[in-house]
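The methods section describes the discrete structure representation at length, but only in general terms. An entry of this sort, consisting of the sequence and the corresponding backbone structure tokens, reads as follows.
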Amino acid sequence: QVQLVESGGGLVQAGGSLSLSCAASGFNIRNYAMGWYRQAPGKERELVAAVNSAGIPYYTESVKFRFTISRDLDKNTLFLQMDSLNAEDTAVYYCARFPTIRITLATAPPQGSWGQGTQVSVSS
């Protein structure tokens, strides 16, 4: 059974940093592409960052050079380091597992492959 548990969200001032973690169980993250999505109030969910099974990352334009996605394969954990945060980064952040080794930008991971989400709030 796929389980993803996010942690590390919170409230931070603009310009600050936060680090999110996603502890995975029931599968090995080295065998799947993994991603971080976010959804702000009144907005659609968007893919923020992802990494394929080979470790190659993808970032949406608005977070390039500010966010870093990484994996600890020994701990089966996915991370998202977020620097230079601004108010537009305020959202609930979700960890998700893609169904294959590849990142699929157009298709979100299926139900049952998501964590419960963690709130990130940036005060301006």
